[in-house]
Automatic annotation (TrEMBL):
Superkingdom of origin organism: Bacteria
MF term (GO), any: heme binding
Protein name: Cytochrome C class I
InterPro entries for this protein: Cyt_c-like_dom (IPR009056), Cyt_c-like_dom_sf (IPR036909), Cyt_c_1A/1B (IPR002327)
Organism: Hyphomicrobium denitrificans 1NES1
């Protein structure tokens, strides 16, 4: 029975872990972000050019919530993945009102695309 449980756990984990993220597919997912974010200039939300590796609440000229300013987050892949699952759950008090991206593959692809933005 233990072998079966271990095998079942591996089956559910391996496909997501083994899946290679696709920046082109992530560009399509980014369409969900465009209502508030642009790549090269602030809009309703801060610009996302160079977001990967950047400290949260650090884009000049954008008025961030106190919650995000105090979060201490640096936008690496893990932090972005958590944030994109539900910003208000990740940082209560954030101004970003977005339900999140529930699909693991879509989030991975979006993050891969965000890594291409300079």
């Amino acid at each position: 029975m233990r072998k079966w449980i271990l095998a079942a756990a591996m089956i559910t984990v391996v496909p997501v872990a083994a899946m290679a993220a696709d920046a082109d597919a992530g560009k399509t997912v980014f369409n969900k972000c465009k209502a508030c974010h642009q790549v090269d200039k602030n809009a309703v939300g801060p610009h996302l050019g160079g977001v990967v590796g950047r400290k949260a609440a650090s884009v000049e000229g954008y008025n961030y919530s106190d919650a995000l300013k105090k979060s201490g987050i640096t936008w690496d892949e893990a932090a972005l993945d958590k944030w994109l699952q539900g910003p208000a759950k990740d940082v209560p008090g954030t101004k970003m009102i977005f339900a999140g991206i529930k699909d693991d593959g879509d989030r991975a692809n979006l993050i891969e695309y965000l890594k291409t933005l300079k």
